[in-house]
Structures are given as C-alpha cells and as structure tokens.
Amino acid sequence: KGKTFTTLLIAEGLAKAEKKRIAYFDTERGTDFYAMTVKERKVHPEAFDFDAAYTASLAKITEEVMALDPKVYGVVVLDSISHVWDSAIAAYTGKRTSADTIPINAWGSIKKPYKFLIRYLLDSPFHVFILGRQKNAFETAADGEMKKVGVAMRAEGETEYEPHITIRME
Q: Per-residue pLDDT tens for 105-156?
C-alpha cells in the first residue's frame, strides 16, 4: 500500500526481533487507521502495536527522540520529514527580504537544529525510518526555461542522501 503501512510492516518485524517497541512520530495523523483492527484490511488486519506522538514541531520531536530509552525502543519512525522541514522554515521569525523570502544568511540557523535531529537519528542505536513526500526537481535549461529533471524528497536538500538506504515508492 503506502509509505506508512509498508514502514509499519518492516518496523514491526524489527521491533519483534529485538523485543522492543516502535516510537512513531506522526506529523499527519496517518497512523490512526493502523492503530485499530480493521477486518477488511487483507494484509495485517489486526492493530499495529506502536507508541505515537502527533506533532510536526522540530523542537518537540528532537526533545522526545532524545528522551527515548534504547532499552525500550528499537525502532523510530519519522513520518513525514517534509512536514518537519516545513515547520522549521515556518518557525523563522527574522527579517525577510523585500521579496518576502528568507535571506540567504539566515538559512544556517534554520538548518542547524534540523540537521542536528537527522544526525542524532542516524547516529542513534535505533532502526530509523525517515519518510518524506515527493516533489518535482527542476533545472534551468540552456535556453533559460525551467525543465523537470526528476523527483526529490520534499525536505532540506541533503536529507535524502543522509540515510544508509533510501527507497522511493511510486
């Protein structure tokens, strides 16, 4: 099916193998359907067993991830990093340019806490799933026109290159 369901199937297997729990950070309430038994669901009709936190706040997720006990939790899921990145940008309260954009010199302060969370997750003892939404990628062609050249994760530009394994679902 989708990214949430597929991730829960894999996360459940990893958590059971380690006799630990799943910590699921849900930014879009996509886990509600999987937290209940649904007899009509042909694959895995029973409820998945995980602990969910519902927030897109970068600060809140970082705080809660850092508080997780690795003796209790074996898997961490962040679904979706796209919303966390959006909230990191929205949290910027500094001066904007005349075009109402964030000045280039301010991006470092936006990226620093975001990159801290990503690095913390990747260096942690947990199995980590970072789910994200897709966006179209464009480049300026020789004639000056924008041309679609592919797709990318809708998040900070380096995010999709950080994990050990990246899978694109279509």
A: 999 999 999 999 999 999 999 999 999 888 888 899 889 899 998 888 888 8
Burial 120-148 (b: 16+ CB within 10 A, else e): ebeeeebbbbbbbbeeeeeeeeeeeeeee
The number of beta carbons lying within 10 Å of the beta carbon of residue 69 is 9
**Residue 70, both tokens:** 């690795």
Distance between CA atoms of residues 2 and 14, nearest Å:
19
CA dihedral 73, 122, 65, 68 (to 10 degrees): 30
Residues making up the chain, counted from first to last: 170
Q: pTM score, two decimals?
A: 0.88
∠ CA 18-20-22, rounded to 5°? 120
Q: State the Cα–Cα distance between residues 18 and 31, nearest whole angstrom.
A: 22
Largest CA distance in the chain: 58
Strand partners, 127: 75
- DSSP assignment of 88-151 equals HHHT--SPPPTTS---GGGHHHHHHHHHHHHHHHHHSSSEEEEE--EEEEEEE-TTS-EEEEEE
Q: pLDDT by residue (tens digit) across 118-132?
A: 999 999 999 999 998
